[in-house]
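Form 7-S
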Amino acid sequence: MTRTLRALLALLALLALLALLACASLARAQASETTQDPCAEVKTQAARAESRLRDWPALARYREANAKLAPPAKGVKRVVFMGDSITDSWDDPRHGGFFPGRPYVNRGISGQTTPQMLVRFRADVLALRPEAVVILAGTNDIAGNTGPTTLEAVEDNLASMAELARAGGVRVVLASLLPVSDYEMRDGKPLVQTARRPPEQIRALNEWIRSYAAARGLVYLDYYAATVDGRGFLKDELSDDGLHPNAAGYAVMAPLAERAVAEALKKKR
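Output:
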């Protein structure tokens, strides 16, 4: 983590603490008027800020699971899936489970961006001794989850992960970002996903991923083409919020991932 980023995170934590103190004062003044905690949201935000400050890349998320994971048995071709919530949520039984019976390891973390994944790539991918890695990342960078960035910076992070993998003898599958949509509603209001994730930026990053993979002999996994509709949106039936796949969405993605992995495993290290 850079010195500037550490300073920013410390500032966020300080601001959250000050807000919490102010809220606590207000809560005492209102104690006789309500039983609800007026500081609940502030407390949640403060806890998130503290957690991010202490472990920005979330290395603790899989530390215990990684320690317990035995080396792959002889002849077993382990594959690690690195990503954000779209990978993370694949484990949900409601989505059909994460490739039952396959030696595939899920190392997705909801909300993460490519710089966070790059920091934990050695611990959550290389140390697990996989034959291949499937990288699906970038949508949260576009959304600014860890601050403003550029597509060039996202591309650099994806390239760095691919280079680390290849240097470690791990075959690489680079996945396209999925499209988003504005079809869904929540509490009677539209979920406008394209505001934070402009379709033109998704398409531009996908084109770079495709070109980069082709130039370096990596496998390109095209989720986008299989999930986009005629308007350039994520197909309505494949998502319940316009961003994350539902069971039907994962049912489309799973065989594509299987084919990409099979193709990668045929390549020389």
